[in-house]
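#lab-general

N.A. 3:47 PM
ok so I finally got the sequence cleaned up, no stray characters, all 309 residues accounted for. can someone with queue access submit it? mine expired

B.Y. 3:52 PM
send it over

N.A. 3:53 PM
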Amino acid sequence: MVDETEQKQIHQSPGKPLSSKRSNSRRSVIIVLLGLIVAEAVAGGITWQILSQGIHKIYLAFAPPAPTSAPVVHNINSATFGFDPQHTHFNPSENLLTLVKVPHLVLFWTSSAGSSVESSPAVVNGVVYVGSSDGRLYAFNSQTGATRWIATTGSFVRSSPAVANGVVYVGSDDGRLYAFNSQTGAKLWVATTGSFVESSPAVVNGVVYVGSFDQKLYAFHYGTTNLIVTSISPTSGPARGGTTITITGHSFTDVINVSFGSTSANSFLVVSDTQIFASSPAGSGTIDVTVTTPIGTSIANSADQFTYT
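B.Y. 4:20 PM
back already:
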């Protein structure tokens, strides 16, 4: 018997005599079965078996025709929601998974996230990328389910990730689009929108497109960004604020905001692409001074820390 079969069963209670009507019915069934056998034989092959226990059951199993050649395995990545930027959900190279095989799929592995998973996975080069409502993006080994790395965002990740040129892009309900290194999970850059980002990014011709709940569509240049703060001076000032600091770094173009922790600077002046003057707001403790431009926000690092005294 072939595994991929569609079984048809005809039941009759044992020990009961057949009436003439039932005999006619049985003849009709046999004629129908013979017709099916002929049809399937013409269509390309049939495997069947009759188990006779007082004409107890009849099993008929049809087998698909044998392939003329072995299927060709293609190394196809599904790097974005819907398989491609157009979200067609169609893989033209698929030749292993068929309608006959689908009912026989079995569980391969499972892995756990910290909360519910509403994101759709992207699978690229043996790695499965998927978001969770615990605010994290997970990378799993596609063969074993082992965790490769976990990256953190500021809120729920209901967006489905997209992978291009070694970078994973995913939205978060904190209103940001994140870019992570696909191999290590290191955060490369963050771009800010006006509300939740639950749509799935599309990466085309050097641009990442993503929608936001602020009813706007955003387009960002993909890849890594050089937006970074490399030093600040002075590195401390009074808690009442008002300290003017010099921020040094890269890609300070079209600066939208300068932040001391979660609080915007009292004021700032962009001197050049590499230098900004900013006045500290009131605050306490040690915080990161970050710069925001249309391409995103600089990643916090030890060189941008300011301490209130």
